[in-house]
Amino acid sequence: MAGETATFVVNRNINFTNVCVVGCAFCGFGQGKRSPDAYLVAEDDFAARVRREAGALPAAQVERVYRIALGRRPSAGEIELGTEALERFAAAWARSGVARGAPAGGDAEARALASYCHTIMNSAEFLYLD
Ligand code: SF4
Which end of the chain has fewer surrounding CB within 10 Å, N or C? Predict the structure, then answer.
């Protein structure tokens, strides 16, 4: 705190897995991949949670993805971009024919949401602090 101004840093650590491949034994966090406490959160898991909590409405899904991944509400423009991305991903997955039998549920919309979750997890918001 300097004078009347308080500042803070938002620090996000999204641990998508606790499986350690190095094994330096420095910490108690890393687990062997066969450990009963090992976990791996994939984009399909993230998308399944979003579908469960937000339903099928694309704008609600975009809002939920932002809340979970970035800890904030999306702007109106981000909702518009997000819903457009979901439409485009779904169309691409439908064209590819790969959606059938995929782990996220098999339909193009489910694959699109998983792709969108993957995109947000790789967004620049994780690289740069405001
Ligand atoms: S600090 Fe923990 S997670 Fe990292 S390499 Fe060492 S044991 Fe593995």
Answer: C
